[in-house]
Amino acid sequence: MRDLDGFLAHLRSIFAVTVQDAREIIAAFHREMEAGLKGEESSLKMIPSFVGPPRGTEKGDCLVLDLGGTNIRVLAVALDGKGNASVSAVSRFVIPENLMGGPGDALFNHLADCLRSFFEQHGSGRQRPGDLAFTFSFPVEQHSLVAGKLINWTKKFTAAGVVGRDVVALLAAALARRRLGFIKVASLANDTVGTLVAGAYADPSCDLGVILGTGTNACYPEQAAKIRKCPEPGASGVMIVNIEWGGFSQLPRNVYDQELDGASPNAGRQWLEKMVAGMYLGEIARRIIVDMMTRGLLFRGTDPAVFSSPYMLQTEHLSRLARGADFYADFGLPEIAETDRQTLREICLLVASRSARIAGAAIAAVVTWQDATIARNHTVAIDGSLFEKYPEYQYYIMAMLEELFGIRAKRIKLALVKDGSGIGSAIIGAMAVAARTGNGSDGGCREISYPDRQSD
C-alpha cells in the first residue's frame, strides 16, 4: 500500500497544473500569438478566416456539410434574422477508417455521397443552383472565404493527396464526379470559427469560440491591423482568427505524454491537443494503467496485455467512472478489488482535470489578450462532447479561471453552443452570399433542391 500511495503522489505531481503553471502558459501563449499574427515561427498558426463577426440579422435557409473528427453531418439550417437559428433537417454519417487513411479523392467522393444521401432522405425536387457552407475541421491556410489549402491532417486522418491542396476545389471536383455540380461552395470555415459565429449571432458579448471534443481548438475576433500576414482586413476591420491552439508546444510533458506522442502518426506536433482533447485522454489513462500493472500496483495477478491495444480505453470509459458507473466488464475484469476501483477513479480524475485546467489556462490567455484586466464581460462559446458530457469538466475550467482571476472570473461565461460548427457555418454562408449578391447582411443562402433521379 505504501508503494501505491507513493506512486499516486507521483502521478498527482506530474499531472498537476498550478496557478503558477497557468501564468507561465498564458505568457507563452501571448508570445506565440504575437509571433503567429506576424507570420513568424510559432506553434500557434493564427490563421485568418476571412470572416468577421455576425450582426445577428443574417437570414435564410442554408445547407451545411460538416466534416468533423469521426463523423460527417449534413444539415439544413434556418436563420430568422433575429439571432435565432434552428436545424430543420440533419443526417449523420460515420467516416470509415479506411477513408481516413486512404486516397483523398475517395474521402471527398464520400462527402459528396453523404450530400446525395441527405437529399434522398429529406426529399427531392427540381434541380436548381444552390449554395453550400463547408465546415472543414482541420488546419487550413485560407486564401479567401472559398479557398484554402490543408496544412496538415490531425486526429486520425492521413488521407493521401490532400495536404497542400485546396479542399474546396477537391470537394467541387467530387461533386462534379457525383453529378452534384449544381451545388456551389459559398464558404469554407473551421468548426471553431463556426462555433464563435453561432455564439455571437445570439449574444454580442461572445468573443471566443472553443472546441472541446475529439479535438480542440479556439478562435477569436482580432483587429485586422494586427494580422500582419493577412492582405484583406474585411469590411468591419475585424476578422476572426483561427488560433489552431491544439499545436501549442510550450507545455511541460510527462513520460506518458511523450510515449503517446512518439507512437502517434503526427509525432512532435499537436502537444496541447494530445494533453486536452477527448481523442487522447483514454489513451493517456491506458498507458498509466499498463505502467502500474507492470509495477504490480494495479490489478495484481492480471496480465497487462488485457490493456495492450492502443486507444482501446476511450474517454467515454473515463466518463463512465466519473459518473459512478464502471467499464471493467468490457475488458474481462468483472470483479476487482475496491482499492483498484479507487485507484482507477483517481487516474481518470487526474487525466481529465489536467485537460480542463490546461483548457482553462488557454481560455484565460485568449481572454486577457483581448482584455488584459477583464474589464468587460466575455462569453466563451464552446462545442464538443468533452465539455458537454464529461462530469465536472466545466467546473474544473471555472476553478482554474477563479484561481487566476478571483472575482473577475465571474465576467467570463462558458456557454455550451450545441451544433455550433454547423449553425455557425450556415451563418457564415449567409454572410458570404449576402456580400456576393449585394443584399447586405440580411441576405442568405439560395435554396438547394436535389435533382430528379432521371437527371442523374
Mean pLDDT: 88
Radius of gyration: 23 Å
The H-and-E topology, N to C, reads as: HHEEEEHHEEEHEHEEEHHHHHEHHEH
Number of strands: 13
Uncertain residue ranges: 125-129, 448-456
Can you list the strand order of the major beta sheet? Answer: 1-11-10-9-12-13
Write a structural description:
With 456 residues, the protein is α/β, with parallel strands linked by helices. It is 41% helix and 19% strand. It contains 14 helices and 13 strands. It has helices at 2-14, 19-38, 97-100, 104-122, 167-177, 191-202, 255-262, 271-276, 278-294, 315-322, 338-370, 385-389, 393-405, 420-437; strands at residues 47-48, 59-67, 71-80, 85-94, 130-136, 140-144, 147-150, 183-189, 206-212, 216-223, 238-242, 378-383, 412-416. The strands form three sheets. Strands 1-11-10-9-12-13 form a six-stranded mixed beta sheet, with helices on both faces. Strand 6 and strand 7 (147-150) form a beta hairpin. Helix 6 (191-202) crosses helix 14. The longest helix has 33 residues, at 338-370. The chain is globular, with a radius of gyration of 23 Å. The N and C termini lie far apart (70 Å). Mean pLDDT is 88; it is low at 125-129 and 448-456.
Structural topology:
Elements (H helix, E strand, L loop, with lengths): L1 H13 L4 H20 L8 E2 L10 E9 L3 E10 L4 E10 L2 H4 L3 H19 L7 E7 L3 E5 L2 E4 L16 H11 L5 E7 L1 H12 L3 E7 L3 E8 L14 E5 L12 H8 L8 H6 L1 H17 L20 H8 L15 H33 L7 E6 L1 H5 L3 H13 L6 E5 L3 H18 L19
Parallel strand pairs: 2-5, 5-8, 9-12, 12-13
Antiparallel strand pairs: 1-11, 2-3, 3-4, 6-7, 9-10, 10-11
Helix pairs in contact: 2-11, 4-5, 6-14, 7-9, 9-10, 9-11, 10-11, 11-13
